[in-house]
Design brief:
Elements lengths: L6 H4 L13 H16 L8 E2 L11 E2 L1 H11 L17 H12 L7 E5 L4 E5 L4 H21 L4 E3 L5 E3 L19 H14 L4 H18 L11 H13 L3 H19 L15 H21 L6
Antiparallel strand pairs: 1-2, 3-4, 5-6
Helix pairs in contact: 2-5, 6-7, 7-10, 8-9, 8-10
Length: 307
């Protein structure tokens, strides 16, 4: 049983995380989290308010106007003070940009001192990494709870940047996708493709698809000798190593041929003006998962995937 604070999660009734659109209620919940960071001093290091009449150098809290001006400069589409416009919701891309922007500026004060005469605190920051990451972790977990409860398919990564989950079909495949092919360039291509596929930017996901197809073509040469014209024989040896002889080997060879044809037919490996684009992002997701599954199977069968 889940240890979630919510009954529906504990009883196996969570909301499927498949939506890639931020709703109004989610937005307002995220605004509340960011306003909490402002009020507890977690954004005061980079946006300091200095309102102590005894010493103008001391930090007393977060300068919300400074935060808003910086946010607007980094995210022009956010407009003026988006956190205060409760009746309007920015686009999903802008909301996720705001989360990225906020996360990079979090720093928990290492020391606080109460100035009783003026009724405020003095905040001090010594850039102690442990203090910074502690508040980052809390923010990441709070955002993820809101996303999970509302079925949002985004989350903070360990680098405190928002990442896309991708479709459910990919979620068991990608975390264990760690190639160890013996070809360092191929490993880089494969991992770069997987990383870009998890981007929330459609252009990155198109790039991921193209890189994965390039890696597929290179993978076919893993059993090749030095002869650059030996690609077909290398691919056959790779299939033999993966499956041996039999009906499934024939099926896998047909899948190799089908995927090769798809890469050549659509704007994946060729970019001439007459080459058709894929119809939408779901088609890109489908083809990426289909090819990644084949690559993962072959690499695991031939001992070229890390455990």
């Amino acid at each position: 049983m889940s240890d979630s604070a919510f009954f529906s999660d504990r009883t196996g009734q969570p909301v499927p995380r498949v939506s890639e659109e931020i709703t109004f209620d989610v937005w307002r919940g995220l605004v509340a989290l960011i306003m909490e960071l402002m009020s507890d001093g977690s954004l005061a290091r980079d946006f300091p308010a200095r309102e102590c009449e005894d010493d103008a150098n001391l930090i007393t809290g977060t300068d919300e106007l400074m935060f808003d001006d910086s946010l607007k400069a980094h995210i022009p589409r956010a407009g003026d003070n988006p956190l205060a416009r409760s009746s309007q919701i920015p686009s999903t891309a802008v909301v996720l940009d705001i989360l990225d922007f906020t996360a990079r500026h979090i720093a928990w004060p290492s020391r606080r001192a109460n100035h009783s005469y003026f009724g405020h605190e003095h905040l001090f920051f010594d850039y102690n990494y442990q203090w910074i990451t502690s508040r980052e972790t809390q923010f990441r977990e709070d955002v993820d709870v809101i996303f999970a409860r509302n079925g949002i398919a985004f989350s903070f990564g360990d680098d405190m940047r928002i990442r896309r989950f991708g479709p459910p079909e990919a979620r068991e495949l990608l975390p264990d996708f760690r190639p160890k092919t013996g070809d360092p360039e191929l490993d880089v291509k494969l991992m770069d493709a997987v990383s870009r596929f998890q981007s929330r930017t459609p252009a990155d996901r198109q790039d991921a698809l193209e890189k994965l197809w390039d890696a597929f073509e290179r993978m076919k040469t893993l059993e090749s000798a030095t002869d650059k014209n030996d690609k077909r024989n290398s691919a056959n040896r790779l299939l033999d190593s993966a499956t041996g002889v039999g009906p499934f080997r024939d099926q896998l060879e047909s899948e190799f041929a089908a995927l090769t044809a798809i890469g050549n037919k659509f704007r994946i490996r060729h970019h001439e003006s007459y080459v058709p684009d894929l119809p939408n992002d779901r088609a890109r997701d489908y083809l990426f998962i289909r090819l990644a599954a084949v690559i993962a199977f072959v690499l695991r069968q031939t001992g070229r995937m890390s455990d």
